[in-house]
Structure formats: structure tokens, C-alpha cells
Write a structure and sequence with these properties.
15 helices; Immunoglobulin-like; globular
């Protein structure tokens, strides 16, 4: 069912764990040709064909009509105009007149023109000549996904408590701020399992340090929170602060563990702490070294982490900043006309994540010097692999929560992902929904968006509607940016509405956890497009605002402001269920289109005829749930 086609000498990304005999690229079923150092191939699409895949990507479930780029990008503005986000998930599948999947195992840039230039043609351009392409033949989309997932290995399963509700913000900067969050949830009676520590918990933004003034006796504090049923989840960034006497930086510099310039000196870029070194995570010895540093925090009782800034995000390079400052100095005192002013402005705007900087970074791969451009998309995945390898060795499976911002296929075996720095926009409820099945196709089961939106100020109704979708996502985390409105559930008026929503999550955890484990063990999807289940139903095939959940359910979030419900399409007879706190209402509905009313404190879902799901009683912590005492609905 899967055939592997190889060109040149590909870098081993370790995305695929099954062994396949390599066939020459000349035998690739979709043809292709080499042009100017690239490999280009294409396929035609019928009007009714659907193109799925690309994991974490902008736009819809059906990828037609746009051009995408595989290039892990630190870009917080997730608009329809973007072509890439934080991940590179190079799996694509055509369904319709023909049905097949492809996975391009290539860690550099790929351009996917899916009916953008020519409406009924997909043109794929690989920016290089050394790559593997896996061609997956089949008749049904789900069987292709399962075959692909089998080839890339079993998906990561987090600890049970990681299915609880999680609260984050940039930043709960000290112990008093964390205590206030836990106290706020406790007083409101809203369940909570995790509180996040963003960059301000560190000593001057140095990885694997804790600011003793902000968090005195941190180990005891972590233990105290654990006794309260609360897990503290600190952030770890890719860049290691350049500071004499900082042991991790000194070790990295002494042992040559940081990425290099072409001349062999350490590449230096600026991020939160100022100038940093970037560990060369593509080297096994560097991964082992960096992974072992998580012990500093696990020894203090920490059992969950989120890896960030690992595309890698670079605010500036030392070389780039000096050039920009020299440019500004040369223009001082001049009367800047239109062109000179915008040239200066663009000089500074272009400092962050500069292509020129990426091209100047070098790694060591199998003893050879390799330009970062050639391996950009696996940098963050290898940071997460460093942690995952250490956790697997020291703790075994399902003990440590780990998820990452940047990712590549293969990282799903040791980590989940979140969908990055989204906005408090109503459109981002749907963006979250649409990325869920695509991420599942690529093995990432533990995933979710920043509920309520990270950037900008959230409204009360937006957070409630966002949470009503987040009730179903394995990662249910509310996260907001520095300077934005507080969006903790207890911070809004009438917090009982939020309690009603979050309690639904805790009631659903036995079902969600069972569904998650099954999907991991059987290479299945938690979330599916309706078209997977109803391939001959035209309305279902085109539906992008509803998803199938597990073997039993269909979810349909409300995603517009100032409405009391939405229209929903039922591809078969189903039972409409509304959940709110401990309240359950059910109504049998026939196949077709219906308008459903959904209050702000209600969670809607539909259950197939003849199917049931289990609900337990809510509790303030996952550790307090009695998962053996359940009721079945409908």
C-alpha cells in the first residue's frame, strides 16, 4: 500500500519508523522533473475532489484554492493570507476521482500550489534534490491515514491529568500570582488541573533556572501545589542565554554544542534574554545533553513542559542588528524621503526571523557541516525529541506532559502541539476546528489552540464559545498575552457560566481519554471531517464547521458573536445533546438541516443513533474523578 521513492541522499529525519525498499524517483507514479535545483511534480483534480492534510496550516479542512509553504514560521498573525504557521507536516491526500496520499520527507522548503495558479491542478515544488516521497494507495481516506500513521509510529499519550482544564498567561510572574489564579478558580468552584509558568519564572530568562525572589523554595512550592492537585507547567525556550558563569551556556560553549557560523564560530542571535546560543539539536550528543537538563526541574517535582520559540524564533542576529544600526547611523541628520524612510523601516522590520540569518547558521549532521536552510523544519522537532528521549529513559510512558510549538512529522511520538499564538478573533474558533483533523492525520493527537485567543482582548462571549469547543480538544488550555485583558474564567461576570462549561469537560474525560487511547493504539483519528464518514453526501463533503468525534459523536461549535445558536447539518438521524454543568437535555433529530439553540453556558454535540458515550460526575481535579461511576447518554 505504501511505496517509497528516493532522490539523491536524503537527510534522515527519522519521521518514518517502518522500513521500505527505496525505488528510484523516476518510477514515482505522479512523475515529476528536476528544474533549477528543485523537483516539481503535479496532479490534476476533478471539480469534486477534496485535498486533505498539511497538519497545522491556515485556511480550511479542504486545502484547495491556496498556496502553502512548508516552513516553520514564527508568525502570530494567523490570517487567511498566510501560507505557513509553526509546523511542517508534509502529508497530503486526494479524495474523489482518485484517492491517494503522499508524504514528502524533506526538512527544507516545499511549496504546495493546490489549485491556486490553476484551479484543477496541484503543483508541488521541493526546494532540493535529496528527499524521500512515500506514495500511499487506497480507496478510502481513513484507511490511507491509518496506513500512513502506522508507518510513522505510535502517537504520544500524555498523563491522565493532562486532560484537565489548564490556565496560562504571559505571565504569572511569581508565586503570589499563581496562588491568586488557583484561589480564583477554587472560590468560583471551577475545575482546574494546571497553571503555566511563562518566561518570567526564570532567572533573567535563562533556561532551567528559577528566579528565587519570585519563587522562593521552588521545590517546596511545587510540592504544595501538587498537594492541592495543581500541576505547574514551565516553558522552555530553544535559545540559551549568553552569560559568563551560567553553567548551561558555559557547557554548551566549551563542548561546541551550539549552532555555528560557516567559519566555525558560534552563531549568536537575540531572543528574550538578549544574545543566545542555539543548541544544535540535530546532533545526538547535544540532544542527550540538553534533554538531561530537564532533570533540574523534574527533580523539583515538575512533570510537564511546553517547548517554545523553537522554529527557531530569532528577534535579531548580532550581525544583522549591527548592520541595521550602521544603516540608521549613516542616515542620521538626513532629510529622509519616501524611499529612504521605508528602506530604513524595512531594515529593522526585517531583523526578526531573517532568511539571511537562517542561511548563515550551520549544523553538524552525521559529521558533515549542513546549512540550516536544508534542515530548518526539523530543528524544533529535535528539541522536543531531546526532551522526549530523556523522559522515556527516566520516567517511562505517559508520565510527563510535553508539547511544542514547532514540529515535524515524527515529533508526534514524543510530544503534542499547540497551534501557536492565535488571536481573540471569532474566526479563530473555526481555525482551531479545521486544524484538528489535519493534525490528527499527521499523528498529532494531543493538540489544541489557545482558548479565548492569545493576542488582543477577549470578550466574555468569545471565551465561552471558544471553551465550548475546547471541551473536546485533548489540550484544553486558556492562554493570553502580556498586556491583554484578563481571561481567566473567574475574572468575568457570572462565572457560573464558565463553571458549567468546564464541568462538562470533566464529565467527558473518561470518554475523551478512552477515545484518545484508542486512536493512538490503532493509528486512528480522534477528529474526522464529515466526508470521511459520509463520502457520498455532498453536503457532508463540503462541511467545514462540524467534525466527527470518535466513533459516536459529531461536534458543532457556535462560532459567531451575538447569536443564540447555529444551523447544523445531520448526515443521518442523531440525538442532539446539550450539556451544561450536571444538566443534560436530549432531543431526537432526523437527517437534514436544523437550527439549534445553544446558550453561552451550554455545550452542543450530536450522538449517532444506536451509540452512547459515558459521563462521570464533575470534580475540581482529575485526581478526584471517579471514572467508574458513569452514566451513559443518550
Amino acid at each position: 500500500m505504501i511505496k517509497k521513492f528516493t532522490s539523491g541522499n536524503p537527510i534522515d529525519t527519522q519521521a518514518v519508523v517502518e522500513k521500505f525498499n527505496a525505488l528510484p524517483i523516476a518510477e514515482f507514479p505522479l512523475g515529476g522533473k528536476f528544474e533549477n535545483g528543485n523537483f516539481v511534480f503535479e496532479f490534476d483534480m476533478a471539480d469534486s475532489d477534496i485535498v486533505y492534510g498539511l497538519g497545522e496550516a491556515p485556511r480550511g479542512i479542504n486545502k484547495r484554492g491556496w498556496v502553502y509553504n512548508s516552513f516553520c514560521s514564527d508568525d502570530p498573525f494567523h490570517t487567511e493570507t498566510k501560507s505557513s504557521l509553526y509546523a511542517a507536516h508534509n502529508f497530503l491526500m486526494l479524495s474523489g476521482s482518485k484517492t491517494f496520499g503522499i508524504f514528502i520527507d524533506f526538512p527544507s522548503k516545499i511549496r504546495w500550489d493546490i489549485g491556486y495558479t490553476t484551479a484543477n491542478k496541484t503543483v508541488i515544488t521541493i526546494d532540493g534534490t535529496d528527499f524521500d516521497i512515500y506514495y500511499i494507495d487506497g480507496t478510502k481516506p481513513l484507511e490511507i491515514v491509518k496506513e500512513f500513521r502506522k508507518s510513522i509510529g505510535t502517537s504520544y499519550v500524555p498523563p491522565f491529568w493532562a486532560f484537565g482544564y489548564q490556565q496560562s498567561r504571559w505571565s504569572y510572574h511569581n508565586a503570589e500570582a499563581v496562588d491568586a489564579v488557583v484561589d480564583g478558580y477554587n472560590k468560583a468552584g471551577i475545575p482546574l488541573d494546571c497553571v503555566y509558568l511563562d518566561i518570567d519564572y526564570m532567572e533573567r530568562y535563562k533556561d532551567f533556572t528559577v528566579d528565587d525572589e519570585k519563587f522562593p523554595n521552588f521545590k517546596d512550592y511545587v510540592s504544595k501545589k501538587r498537594e492541592e492537585g495543581i500541576h505547574l507547567i514551565p516553558i522552555i525556550d530553544a535559545g540559551v542565554k549568553k552569560e559568563n558563569g551560567y553553567d548551561i551556556y558555559e557547557e554548551g560553549r566549551k563542548n561546541g554544542y551550539f549552532c555555528k557560523n560557516e567559519d566555525g564560530t558560534d552563531f549568536e542571535g537575540g531572543v528574550w534574554p538578549g544574545i543566545v546560543g542555539f543548541p544544535d539539536f540535530l546532533r545526538p550528543d547535544v540532544r542527550k545533553w540538553f534533554g538531561s537538563k530537564y532533570k533540574i526541574l523534574t527533580d523539583m517535582g515538575i512533570d510537564g513542559f511546553w517547548n517554545d520559540m523553537n522554529e527557531p524564533a530569532i528577534f535579531y542576529s548580532v550581525k544583522g542588528l549591527n548592520k541595521a544600526l550602521d544603516k540608521a547611523a549613516s542616515l542620521k541628520g538626513q532629510n529622509l524621503d519616501l524611499s529612504k524612510f521605508f528602506e530604513l523601516k524595512d531594515t529593522f522590520a526585517g531583523l526578526s526571523n531573517s532568511p539571511e540569518d537562517y542561511s548563515s547558521i550551520y549544523h553538524t549532521v552525521d559529521g558533515k557541516q549542513v546549512c540550516h536552510d536544508q534542515v530548518h523544519n526539523i530543528y524544533g522537532a529535535n528539541m522536543t525529541k531531546a526532551a522526549g528521549e530523556y523522559f522515556a529513559e527516566k520516567f517511562g510512558k505517559e508520565k510527563i506532559l510535553m508539547f511544542s510549538r514547532a514540529s515535524y512529522v515524527g515529533a508526534h511520538r514524543s510530544s503534542g502541539i499547540w497551534f501557536g499564538d492565535n488571536h481573540s478573533w471569532w474566526s479563530h474558533i473555526l481555525l482551531d476546528l479545521k486544524m484538528l483533523p489535519s493534525a490528527n492525520m499527521c499523528g498529532f493527537l494531543y493538540c489544541g489552540a489557545d482558548l479565548g485567543g492569545f493576542n488582543e482582548n477577549a470578550t466574555r462571549d468569545l471565551v465561552l464559545r471558544f471553551l465550548a469547543l475546547g471541551v473536546f480538544t485533548p489540550l484544553m488550555r486558556n492562554h493570553a498575552a502580556l498586556g491583554t485583558r484578563n481571561q481567566e474564567c473567574y475574572s468575568f461576570e457570572n462565572s457560573d457560566d464558565f463553571k458549567d462549561i468546564v464541568e462538562v469537560r470533566y464529565r467527558l474525560i473518561p470518554y475523551l481519554y478512552r477515545t484518545f487511547k484508542k486512536a493512538s493504539e490503532e493509528n486512528d483519528m480522534i477528529f474526522r471531517p464529515l466526508s470521511f464518514d459520509y463520502p457520498d453526501d455532498k453536503i457532508a463533503r463540503e462541511c467545514e464547521t462540524q467534525l466527527m468525534l470518535g466513533d459516536e459523536c459529531m461536534i458543532c461549535p457556535v462560532y459567531e458573536q451575538n447569536v443564540g445558536g447555529r444551523y447544523v447539518y445531520l448526515p443521518e438521524n442523531m440525538t442532539f445533546v446539550k450539556l451544561s454543568g450536571t444538566s443534560i437535555t436530549t432531543e431526537k433529530m432526523s437527517k437534514g438541516t436544523h437550527y439549534i439553540e445553544v446558550a453561552l453556558n451550554e455545550v452542543p454535540l450530536f450522538i449517532k443513533d444506536g451509540r452512547q458515550i459515558e459521563l462521570c460526575k464533575p470534580a475540581m481535579r482529575t485526581s478526584q474523578l471517579d471514572t467508574t461511576d458513569t452514566v451513559m447518554i443518550p
